[in-house]
From TrEMBL:
The keyword Protein biosynthesis does not apply. Pfam families: HpcH_HpaI (PF03328). The lineage of its organism: Eukaryota, Fungi, Dikarya, Basidiomycota, Agaricomycotina. InterPro entries: Aldolase/citrate-lyase_domain, HpcH-HpaI_aldolase, Pyrv/PenolPyrv_kinase-like_dom, Pyrv_kinase-like_dom_sf. This is Pyruvate/Phosphoenolpyruvate kinase-like domain-containing protein. Keywords: Kinase, Lyase, Metal-binding, Pyruvate, Transferase. Belongs to the HpcH/HpaI aldolase family.
């Protein structure tokens, strides 16, 4: 199991976690992107993407077979949703809207088998994304699967030191767009950037991975230079829309942004 954990292994080796956001339930799409290399994780977005739990198995096995770690984001912080994602073979779960240490403790429990947690037992398909047998999976799951919580509210930032200190939390992942909206501050403004810096510092102080959503390679480089350990660089839908915009702009001899919106 350990050898298959591309993201966890990279982070433990002090290498950067570089991934992208998958919003389409398409194994051919994700395999096409991963065929070029360069990524060690993919976020399977069932919160805002067009993905449901019936899509999980085909997506996570395609991602794992292509040399990256599939991380699933369920729609909400619910025990049954996390269980479904883990039982499909996710290498980690990203849970949205973690506001308090109490939230973080519940999330950890939902990701772990008893006696550490409350995850129900039934991993008939979980092992397929790890290249191991079903009997081998349970004994390694608690220690090897990543528990990722999103900090994306004013309350989450205010409580971030306590959240980071929760045993079993591996990654604090900032959702910067929700953060600006929940804080009611300008995206990229001083208060917004101060909050991001606070989460970064709290994660590192607690020995945890600091991660953040980015929608472009330029944003990702800025955050890596800032000290983040893990970044997304784009969304599938954003890349597709942007490339069509570029081709349309070239066709009509106009500047980008003058026609369709670029995500």
């Amino acid at each position: 199991m350990k050898n298959a954990l591309q993201l966890k292994n990279a982070l433990e080796a002090k290498q950067k976690g570089v991934g992208f956001w998958l919003t389409f339930p398409s194994a051919p799409l994700v395999k096409t992107v991963l065929n070029g290399g360069g990524f060690n994780w993919v976020l399977v977005d069932a919160e805002h993407g067009q993905i449901s739990d019936g899509d999980y198995y085909n997506l996570v096995t395609a991602i794992a077979a292509s040399g990256a770690s599939p991380i699933i984001r369920p729609p909400n912080a619910e025990e049954w949703m996390i269980k479904r994602a883990l039982d499909a073979g996710a290498h980690g779960i990203m849970t949205p809207m973690c506001h308090t240490a109490a939230d973080a403790k519940k999330i950890v429990a939902w990701n772990k088998y008893p006696p550490k947690g409350t995850r129900g037992f039934g991993p008939m398909f979980s092992s397929h994304a790890f290249g191991i047998t079903e009997p081998e999976y349970p004994g390694a799951a608690d220690d090897n699967l990543l528990v990722i919580v999103q900090i994306e509210s004013r309350q989450g930032v205010e409580n971030v030191e306590e959240i980071a200190a929760v045993d079993g939390i591996d990654v604090l992942f900032i959702g910067p767009y929700d953060l600006s909206k929940f804080m009611n501050v300008e995206f990229g403004g001083k208060e917004h950037e101060d909050a991001i810096a606070k989460v970064l510092a709290a994660a590192h102080s607690a020995g945890k991975t600091a991660a953040i959503f980015c929608s472009s390679g330029a944003q990702a480089k800025k955050r890596l230079d800032q000290g983040f350990d893990m970044v997304s660089i784009a969304t599938d839908v954003g890349c597709i829309a942007a490339e069509f915009e570029r081709q349309l702009a070239d066709t009509h001899g106009v500047e980008m942004g003058k026609g369709r919106k670029v995500y």
